[in-house]
Amino acid sequence: MKVLVTGGAGYIGGHMVLALRDAGHDSVVLDNLSTGFRWSVPEDVPLVVGDVGDYELVLQTLRAHSIDAIVHFAAKLIVPESLRDPLGYHLNNTVKSRSLLAAAVAAGVETFVFSSTAAVYGNASDRPIAEDAPLAPLSPYGSSKQLTEVMLREVAAAHGMRFVVLRYFNVAGADPAMRHGQCTANATHLIKVAVQTALGMRPSMEVFGTDYPTPDGTCIRDYIHVSDLISAHMRALDHLGAGGESLVANCGYGHGYSVSEVIDTVRKVSGRPLEARIALRRDGDPVTIVADSTRLRSSLDWQPRYDDLATIVEHTLRWETMLRERNLKL
Ligand SMILES: NC(=O)c1ccc[n+]([C@@H]2O[C@H](COP(=O)([O-])OP(=O)(O)OC[C@H]3O[C@@H](n4cnc5c(N)ncnc54)[C@H](O)[C@@H]3O)[C@@H](O)[C@H]2O)c1
Ligand SMILES: O=c1ccn([C@@H]2O[C@H](COP(=O)(O)OP(=O)(O)O[C@H]3O[C@H](CO)[C@H](O)[C@H](O)[C@H]3O)[C@@H](O)[C@H]2O)c(=O)[nH]1
């Protein structure tokens, strides 16, 4: 199978490129390097530096490499940034996905895997959320992904394309062999921030809100190890390659941890003190988001390997320690 990986120079896309390579598939990366890194793409994987919104470039890439499937990771993904810049998010995530889909249709690509997000659900409920729950995003980031899901469904129906939409919950951790991990500069994601603080790379961190209606007052999330998330993508490609029908599936483990529990786990696993200051709530944060992942397990026969918060933290710690030793301040 020949796969175009958009955003393949980034955190999750980079793990996908390694998994495709490990499985003996050819891939081509398309990335504008806005948050990704050229060095994170293996030398034997072609990297096209460009934008998913560049219709001619994408069409030419799809044709030149006889691409069978697109896995579309490229996006902006910071919730607070999206609240400040909704037009930027809709342009990058929705309008440019439209252009990518148009090129895919023109090139006759029949299968598409799309990185969506639990942010499409908004403040759903305190129970695990299933795919048929109402969508009510709290941020332009979430709505930019929801709109792309709608567009993909309609384009697929009209043009004989089949797709898998994967709605990721909170992705964390690093490749257990330490070949790749999260490199995003000025990261805002909780586990990375907490680990960097424990390692002394940040003087302290903030807990955004301790007055939520949860047992300890902090928000609850379902943290999924990036390698388990990638195995869901590989199952999705197998499913589509075998002629499987289009589907939407949540990617999470089905249980959540509060912000305070995550910070305590980082303290325990690292064995280091970690100063966490109480701060105001962050805009756009839902209280609790936990996945009902029944569909992922049943339709794609997905089985997680790293469903353990301490393991996720340990892999993040090893990755951040390696970055620090190499003097990479990311
Ligand atoms: N990290 C998470 O917790 C999380 C959760 C849910 C969904 N997601 C989704 O997963 C995907 C990947 O996220 P990530 O964490 O790897 O982020 P990332 O920033 O590390 O990767 C995104 C990559 O896309 C590239 N990119 C962005 N816009 C582009 C464009 N217009 N054209 C070409 N390349 C472009 C960037 O340079 C980067 O390499 C995103 O679609 C994101 O919405 C991530
Ligand atoms: O320094 C920090 C960082 C985060 N948090 C809190 O930790 C929780 C998780 O926050 P993250 O920023 O790590 O992740 P989000 O839940 O905001 O969003 C992530 O998961 C979502 C799905 O659940 C989306 O997919 C999105 O792309 C991705 O960034 C939130 O309650 C947040 O307020 C802190 O208290 N302090």
Describe the protein.
This protein has helices spanning 11-22, 55-64, 79-84, 86-107, 140-159, 190-198, 226-241, 259-270, 294-299, 309-325, and strands at 2-6, 26-31, 47-49, 69-72, 111-117, 162-168, 170-172, 205-208, 220-221, 223-225, 247-251, 257-258, 276-279, 288-289. It is of the alpha/beta class and 330 residues long. It folds into two domains: 2-172 and 223-251, NAD(P)-binding Rossmann-like Domain (Rossmann fold, 3-Layer(aba) Sandwich), CATH 3.40.50; 190-221 and 254-325, Alpha-Beta Complex (UDP-galactose 4-epimerase, domain 1), CATH 3.90.25.10. It has a seven-stranded parallel sheet with strand order 3-2-1-4-5-6-11, sandwiched between helices. Helix 6 packs across helix 10 (309-325) and helix 8 packs across helix 10 (309-325). The longest helix is centred in the N-terminal third of the chain and has 22 residues, at 86-107. It starts with a strand and ends in a 5-residue tail after the last helix. Bound molecules: nicotinamide-adenine-dinucleotide (NAD) and galactose-uridine-5'-diphosphate (GDU). Galactose-uridine-5'-diphosphate binds at residues 77, 79, 117-119, 168-170, 188-190, 193, 205-208, 219, 221, 259, 282, 285, 289.
Low-confidence stretches: none
Write out the distinct hetero groups bound to the structure. nicotinamide-adenine-dinucleotide, galactose-uridine-5'-diphosphate
User: How many structural units, i.e. domains?
Assistant: 2
The fourth-level CATH homologous superfamily of the largest domain is: NAD(P)-binding Rossmann-like Domain
Instruction: Give the neighbour order of strands across the main sheet.
Output: 3-2-1-4-5-6-11
CATH level 1 name of the largest domain = Alpha Beta
Structural class: alpha/beta
The CATH architecture classification of the largest domain is 3-Layer(aba) Sandwich
The number of E-state strands comes to 14
What is the share of helical residues?
Answer: 25-40%
Span of the ends, CA to CA = 33 Å
In round numbers, the mean pLDDT is 95
Largest sheet: 7 strands, parallel
CATH topology of the largest domain: Rossmann fold
Rg from alpha-carbon coordinates: 19 Å
Q: Total helix count?
A: 10
Basic shape:
globular
Helix and strand pattern: EHEEHEHHEHEEHEEEHEEHEEHH
